[in-house]
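Example record

One chain of 218 residues, shown exactly as stored in the release files.
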Amino acid sequence: METDAPTPAAGADTADETEARTTSPGTSAAGGPDVVTMTTAMLKALSHPLRRAALREVRQHRYLRAADVAERLGEPANKVSFHLRVLADAGLIAEAPEQARDRRDRVWTVVPGALTVGSPEHPVADQALGDAVMSAFVEEHYAIVQRVVAWAPEYVSGRDAEVHGTFVRDSLQLTPAEFEALLDRLDIAVREAKEQHDESAPDTRYYDLDVIAADNLI
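Predicted structure tokens for this chain:
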């Protein structure tokens, strides 16, 4: 096994309640819900950058109103409200009436569950939309990498002693079954970290975690 870790490991948040995957063995980690293949409506909703950004805000903050999302994204509230309704119609977010101040107050939360674009058993619902969503995920992955790369020189030089991210590379020999088991263990570790987190902790931050791997056949 070869390891190259220029920065220490950081926290993780793939998706607070909903996990989006481009590929999946078909089920989430042991004890978790089945992975659901995205519908055409879900793919269409996630193909829009503002809707992805709105979903990310709701996911990170757990419960948000349209006005809250609009303020965080710097967008008009009526525009954000429209996109939130599209996400709701696609089954990606839902109202949380228990968080509302009155019957007119609309508070949104992410629908829990693990999602996949498609698989051999359940092919992608719309190839063009699926390609667009996967391309968007890749672009967002690059953005995370660029954030870490921009910060890393501050850490390795000693100018910033606080850990803000990580970039780790590993090479290991596994069978396909062992690789899927490793993904399950990673899934369990992330879920346990979420469950054990104290949301009242004053130093709470939102971490973006991308896990990427490839074998020698692709």
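Notes: Residues 1-18, 23-31 have pLDDT under 50 and may be disordered.
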